[in-house]
Amino acid sequence: MSLRRPLARLFMTPVLVWACSLALAANKDLSREKIVDLDHLTEVSPGVHVIEDKDHVVLVPNVTLITGKDAVLVVDTGLGTESARRVLQTAERLAKGKRLYLTTTHFHPEHGFGAHVFKGKATLIYNRAQRDELLKKGPAYRRLFSERLGVAEALKDMRFVLPDIVYEREAEIDLGGRVVRLSHHQPAHTLGDQVVSVPAQGVVILGDLLETKSFPIFPWFPEIEDTDVDPVNWREILQAVERTQPKVVIPGHGPVGTARDLTEAVRHMDTVRDEVTKRCSSGQDLASIQKDLTPLLRAQHPDWELQDWIANEILVYHTRLCGSASELGLFDKVARE
């Protein structure tokens, strides 16, 4: 009896749920539905505009444009060529001939797979870990999104491009009267997560380190050899940002928030960590913990989006905290057979 299918269901549940919800059974390409909506362009702080994901549309991120006297910085591109083209046009309108920069919060497709549109028109700045992760994992994620998530059309003309500037831990960009800080801390949601901030205004951009009014997205995908998510580091980053008491918190997805959203996210992660640790100590296996804990977490936040990702979150905590290396070894063995 092959174990491949049960294991795939266990590890890939959120992706398969997405596939069903995105009507892949009907072979429908949903790329047009995933284009950023320029009608949602909002100034959230002086010189800081967000094309906001107000309605939690799957695969539509928040895109931020920060303007100064001398230049404009774009943070994230949207998914694929058309979203990026619209973002670029908006940036050029705000810039009025000024210099353009582009950076991305992390390498995932809906955040950075439009960088090719900016190449040659903007200076691309990534941290080294993000660049390296893009080169290593980018092609597999392109296949995953194209084949399972119904956005092949959005990605058909996409090509991978390298940044013009690579930094290690921290960099600053003076846009002219407005200084932006780029920071890479440690592996969390991805290996190269970047926190972008305008310290003088209390603005912070977190990418998928935070989703407002939503359960977090834990990208655990053994099928494409991505199991690098680290919830312990992730929590530390959120708490460090929370301590700065930002006024404006821009998440990867969902409405623009405040420091309160960071507090709620940290509290949620603490709850999952403590509950998984306690249940492991009492001898519960992963499946039992997922079955018992999922409804409890839903009940705590019944209005939060992305409830289908709770199982992955529990899986990752279980693996990191409960010594589940044997399960990973079993998966690897089956995958090779």
Note down, in words, how this protein is organized.
The protein has about 325 residues and is an alpha/beta fold. It has one domain: Metallo-beta-lactamase, Chain A. The chain has eleven helices and twelve strands. The strands form two sheets. The chain has a seven-stranded mixed beta sheet with strand order 1-2-3-4-5-6-7. Strands 8-9-10-11-12 form a five-stranded mixed beta sheet, covered by helices on one side. A hairpin with a 4-residue loop joins strand 10 and strand 11. The longest helix is centred in the last third of the chain and has 23 residues. It is globular. The two termini are about 10 Å apart. The N terminus and C terminus are likely disordered.
Q: Could you name the key traits of this structure?
A:
globular; alpha/beta; single chain; disordered C terminus; 337 residues; 5-stranded mixed β-sheet; 12 strands; 19% strand
**Which CATH architecture?**
4-Layer Sandwich
Helix-strand string = HEEEEHEHHEHHEEEEEHEHHHH
How many helices? 11
Mean of pLDDT: 90
- Strand order of the main beta sheet, please? 1-2-3-4-5-6-7
The quaternary organization reads as: single chain
Provide the number of structural domains: 1
- What is the CATH third-level topology name? Metallo-beta-lactamase, Chain A
Shape estimate? globular
Largest sheet: 7 strands, mixed
What is the share of helical residues?
A: 40-55%
CATH superfamily grouping: Ribonuclease Z/Hydroxyacylglutathione hydrolase-like
How many strand elements? 12
Rg computed from alpha carbons, rounded to a whole number of angstroms: 20 Å
Distance from first to last alpha carbon: 12 Å
CATH class descriptor = Alpha Beta
